[in-house]
Amino acid sequence: MVIKPGCFTCENTARFDELPPRERIAADEHWRAAHAVGTGLPGWLVLVPHRHVLTIADLTDVEAAGLGYWQVRLSRALQAVTGCAKTYVVQFAEAEGFGHVHFHVIPRPADLPADRRGPNVFGFLGQPDGQAISAGQMDAVAVALTEWLQQRGEGLM
């Protein structure tokens, strides 16, 4: 595994066993799912490769296969746990300090206002303290997702 010092994602992956539930919802030898920080939408997940990768084209074939596996599994778990109507899966990795490739797996509630659907869902990200969901709320969602996945033989490996 290649860890880049100063990379938020790499540093969290390197200390996996110390992370709170929101940072280790599911994992295998190549991927880790965590709750996004600074979001106003409970269940907004990020799927990150363990290895420091800056473009999707640099994923290995094995990592690419795992990517599809986890996007589907996490979407199913989000539908079961949050009751969302569907999920959005998005990858940009453009924000300062977050160039490590990551995939947003975003629950889209049935009652989400039309002006927040599609790419406008990103209006829920980058929320200031007090408007973002709390660490406790993220952990509660994370625990429910982890339990749902583990009941199906998926999750932390």
Concise structural overview:
The protein has 157 residues and is of the alpha+beta class. It is 29% helix and 15% strand.
Explain the overall architecture.
With 157 residues, this protein is of the alpha+beta class. 29% of the residues lie in helices and 15% in strands. It contains 3 helices and 5 strands; from the N terminus they run H-E-E-E-H-E-E-H. It has helices at 8-14, 61-82, 135-151; strands spanning 26-27, 31-35, 45-49, 86-90, 103-108. Strands 1-2-3-5-4 form a 5-stranded antiparallel sheet. The longest helix has 22 residues, at 61-82.
Helicity level: 25-40%
Succession of helices and strands: HEEEHEEH
The spatial strand order of the largest sheet comes to 1-2-3-5-4
The 3D shape can be described as globular
Count of DSSP-assigned helices: 3
Report the C-alpha radius of gyration, rounded.
15 Å
Give the strand tally: 5
Provide the β-strand percentage band: 5-15%
Q: Structural class from helices and strands?
A: alpha+beta
Mean pLDDT: 92
Please give the largest β-sheet.
Answer: 5 strands, antiparallel
Low-confidence stretches: none
Distance between the termini: 16 Å
